């Protein structure tokens, strides 16, 4: 199928390349000429495992092209909108400037029967507002949120754990279709005939959900749940999922705070409660908390939208989730100060990690860099190392010292602070090896990724988050 992807940032670039890799003919469109030039040469503008390979493959096959020219969207059957929705500069709400600009620029190139599929994370109600403009062009708007995790973006796009498509009129239009694809009801009666009978409504309009099902055919064939909803539900699924994940992390970090005043161990606590399948162990990693381009901004935008809707109190807990999260950064800084005898002035502190999480070079709202900057503010000589994110970090915080080589970075350090759990630091840095390089033997484990016993056995002062 011919597809266009408008916005070639993290989401759009991965989506375009992934769609080409499953056989579609894809044009990626962005206003940023430098980004388009790089992508056209097969260069990923950010670090993402597997992306360079599928970019190269798509470009070589002729199925994947990139351009700044919006007219290239003509002739595509589905137009994905994957532009950013950043936090507004003067508040918590999402800035929809790019979504509106993308839709306006696309309108002249839409043909009757086309589908516009929103992928950006937007405040609930955005699709309903956009729909009349798109319908006036004879096209149909659907909302198809993206759940990809950085570092696993290619895998999450090609082989997602669920597909959600919101359509105007929602389940009332497509409920039979939705049930047959999720295995409920209509058993065996789905397939081609059911699909084709639903492919066109009585008014002759194309059933947009069926077209999206074709776009994602390989995943659907593998049994990936394909959930058809109304537009508002699809928008909410995305923010609700991120709100839940953020809440789960802040819940365990709240338990870490209690553990810290009682001598309990939050990692054992997480293991024990995580065995309850209703709770689950994943996302119960206590530490310096969440960051990145999604969770922090999405919970804030959700709060702001709920306020606008007169339901601020329904998600008031998200403010607390945000505050718990930010307090953990203070705690990590305090641990370093305490471990160094009450002050860090002119002490050499090496911060292991700059990215907001491993397998990423993304430093947006990175708790790791926040800790580094605060230590610098207290007068420490801060050296930051990271396998991928140093260039981005240097641009954002040029006052810090950056050393790419891990061993060089820790040489003569008075204290180490693990803030991003790359394997280089978590698994591959042996305490006996570190002892030969550093000046002091103090390590603060901001991700609870290390074995305290192994470090203590080498004579190190080990301090974790919510661990005795
Ligand atoms: C997140 C969602 O997971 C994804 O579904 C959505 O599409 C975008 O937002 P991402 O931002 O890539 O993805 O990162 P994720 O792996 O969710 O981690 C977010 C942050 O939480 C990271 O800073 C990570 O270090 C932190 N985290 C994660 C914890 O502090 N503890 C945990 O147990 C898990």
From TrEMBL:
One of its GO terms (biological process) is polysaccharide biosynthetic process. Its EC number is 1.1.1.22. Keywords: NAD, Oxidoreductase. It comes from the Bacteria. The active site is at residue 294. This is UDP-glucose 6-dehydrogenase. The keyword Transmembrane helix does not apply. Residues 350-452 form the UDP-glucose/GDP-mannose dehydrogenase C-terminal domain. Substrate binds at residues 147-150, 238, 283-287, 291, 357. It catalyses: UDP-alpha-D-glucose + 2 NAD(+) + H2O = UDP-alpha-D-glucuronate + 2 NADH + 3 H(+). Residues 179-199 are annotated as: Disordered. NAD(+) binds at residues 30, 35, 85, 121, 150, 297, 364.
